[in-house]
Structure formats: structure tokens, C-alpha cells
């Protein structure tokens, strides 16, 4: 049994979870006393490791600001949507993150792009990746606020370029100014070949060039997104109407 002084030291080291694991062993002597010390210690460390990872995962999910916090790969609806379940399951392993690939989720309004993106984002959080969800209009508003406060764009771009996975919803849904396009270029340039981005859009790739204003800047943005991106169509089924019974 661990004495109070040792427990105090463990608390100072923020190892409360280890105390809990050792207490469980003390409360169940029939299960643990026959075990060698190293096996009991390994079990306690495993319990501590799992506890800390669970807490970190919850913090990451909260910090991601998901549009649908309850979205989950395990609750995905596949019937009559044309989605490849095996592909979605593969994406949930986050290999695309390790390869620095981006994802493009393309589909009509209400087809479940945002839900799928949030579900994949949550899967990434569970593997302890830092994730952030944001609508493109909200991101541009943050840019405007940073400029108005005299902070410039560099700090904001650095912040959003450092997420392991950035989910940009409503991608190219609204008309963009030249300043908007330049900001998007700087962000995609910083993230290119370093981190992954999920783009949720209604537009096919051939329409992106025009939506980005055309010209060399549009070419540069497309070059940094399309060539290493995985494309996935979410179909035309309106999931909102389907689940509302309309």
C-alpha cells in the first residue's frame, strides 16, 4: 500500500491518476497481490496513460469548435448516399494526416459535408491531433478584426497554419475580394505539405479557379490544394430533410 507521503509527492507531480490506479489495486487484493511488482506497475502506468489521454482528447474536441460536436464515424448514415464506407473508415485512421494529404468534401446543400468533416475531425482528436473547425466567412472576419486591431495577418495565419487538421466549411460559397484571396493564398502556402486541411464545398474543382478570381493567385492556391487532395462526393441526398421527416 502506498503511504500518504508518497501520495502527496505523486500529487505534486500531477500524477493523481497513478494514485487512483494504485488504490484500485489495494482495494482488490485478491486480483493483484499474487502479481509480480513489475506487472502491477505496468497495469498502473497503463491506467494512468489512458486516463491522461482521455482527458487530453476531451480538451482537443472542445478546442476544435466543431459545428456538430456529436458527429461520429460510428453513427454515419450510408444508405442511398453513394458513400464508400470502407473509404470513410480508412480516413478515420488518419493516415491522410500522416501523409499531409488534404480532403475535399463536395456535395449539395444539406448532403452531410459538415457532419462528415466533424466526424473525421473528432477521429483525429482521438488520436491526439490538434484540430480546428471554422467557416470561411468566420475566418475572414477574424482576419478583418486582426487588421482593425493593428495586429496584421501574420499572427492569425501562424495560428491557423499550426493545426494538424484545419476544417474549412462553406469553402468558396461567397464571393471573395482580392484581399480575401491573398489571405487564403498565404494560409494555404503555410499549410502546404505540412498539415492537412478538409474543405467542405458545393463546387467542383473546375469551378474553383473562377470562384478564386482567376489569375496567377488562383492558380497558386489550386496548385497547393488539388494535387495532393483526396476527393469525396457526399451526394445530393438532403440529410436535413431525411432526418426531419420532410
Written account of the structure:
There is one protein chain. This protein has 246 residues and is an alpha/beta fold. It is 56% helix and 12% strand. It folds into two domains: 60 residues, no CATH class; 179 residues, 3-Layer(aba) Sandwich (Rossmann fold). It has 13 helices and five strands. A five-stranded parallel sheet has the order 2-3-4-1-5. The protein is elongated. The relative contact order is 0.13.
Largest sheet: 5 strands, parallel
**Strand and helix order:** HHHHHHEHEHHEHEHHEH
Q: Please name the CATH topology of the largest domain.
A: Rossmann fold
Q: Total number of helical segments?
A: 13
Rg from alpha-carbon coordinates: 23 Å
- The fraction of residues in strands falls at 5-15%
Structural class estimated from helices and strands:
alpha/beta
Shape category: elongated
Q: What would you say the CATH architecture of the largest domain is?
A: 3-Layer(aba) Sandwich
On the 0 to 100 scale, the average pLDDT is 87
State the separation between the terminal residues, measured CA to CA.
62 Å
pLDDT < 50 runs, ≥5 residues: none
State the total count of DSSP E strands. 5
Question: Number of domains in the coordinates?
Answer: 2
What do we call the CATH homologous superfamily of the largest domain? P-loop containing nucleotide triphosphate hydrolases
- Largest beta sheet: strand ordering: 2-3-4-1-5
CATH class of the largest domain: Alpha Beta
How much helical structure, as a percent, in the residues? 55-70%
